[in-house]
UniProtKB/TrEMBL annotation:
InterPro entries found in the cross-reference section: Aldolase_TIM, Ribul_P_3_epim, Ribul_P_3_epim-like, RibuloseP-bd_barrel
Keywords attached to this entry: Carbohydrate metabolism, Cobalt, Isomerase, Manganese, Metal-binding, Zinc
Cofactor, free-text remark: Binds 1 divalent metal cation per subunit.
Entry GO CC: cytoplasm
GO biological process: pentose catabolic process; pentose-phosphate shunt
Protein's name in the database: Ribulose-phosphate 3-epimerase
Lineage: Bacteria, Thermotogati, Thermotogota, Thermotogae, Petrotogales
């Protein structure tokens, strides 16, 4: 079964509760994009927003840390997340970071920027629940999907791991089918859900294609 996680970055921040409640029965969870203005050239939101949202829904919270030195914040994010994903490019002692995430009872993921090869994950793969392949340069919603992503998914598949392969950036009804065929099973979808006139219809359309 393919999983869909709307990114709240594309939702209406003046009315997040309404946007989340509107789609919550049709999604597998929500993707939380945390940006620090250092790892990526943008600042999004942090603990107060996550803590407020945690109170209004029991859905799975998939937290994507686009921050430097993520180790300093794992414990606090674990209290408001079901899964924490850190960037390969932002960590020095990845095995230690992943162990910390597990210690705090969260699923653990590693995200790769478009230029980072999947082969670098060889030794850490057995410890991961998911790999988040960035199909845009992280930092902003609404960007164009990078076409070399398909090949990257195939290469990760060839590494013979059961890890969940999640795709983030520019996912929409036109590419989701090809992404599934390449081997991806989970999708972060921002604009193609929340920037449409009917988010539930958009989600259904993507599920129907598959
Ligand atoms: C980009 C974020 C994405 C983003 C996806 O840095 O990691 O999760 O919100 O948004 P869309 O689907 O609009 O590309
Ligand atoms: Zn993300």
């Amino acid at each position: 079964m393919v999983k869909i996680f709307p990114s709240i970055l594309a939702a209406n921040f003046a009315n997040l509760e309404k946007d989340l409640k509107n789609v919550e029965n049709n999604v597998d969870g929500f993707h939380m994009d945390i940006m620090d203005g250092r790892f990526v050239p943008n600042i999004s939101f942090g603990f107060p927003v996550l803590e407020s949202l945690r109170k209004i829904t029991n859905k799975y919270f998939d937290t994507h840390l686009m921050i430097v030195e993520p180790d300093n914040y794992i414990e606090r994010f674990s209290k408001v997340s079901d899964s924490i994903t850190v960037h390969y490019e932002a960590t020095t002692h990845l095995h230690r970071t992943i162990s910390q995430i597990k210690k705090f009872d969260c699923e653990a993921g590693v995200s790769l920027n478009p230029h980072t090869p999947v082969s670098l994950l060889e030794e850490i793969l057995p410890y991961l629940d998911k790999v988040l392949i960035m199909s845009v340069n992280p930092g902003f919603g609404g960007q164009k999907f990078i076409e070399t992503t398909y090949n990257k998914i195939r290469k990760l598949k060839d590494m013979n791991s059961n890890v969940e392969i999640m795709i983030d950036g520019g996912v929409n009804p036109n590419n989701i089918d090809k992404l599934v065929k390449a081997g991806a099973s989970s999708f972060v979808v921002g604009s193609a859900v929340f920037k449409t006139s009917d988010p539930n219809k958009a989600i259904k359309e993507m599920r129907d294609i598959l």
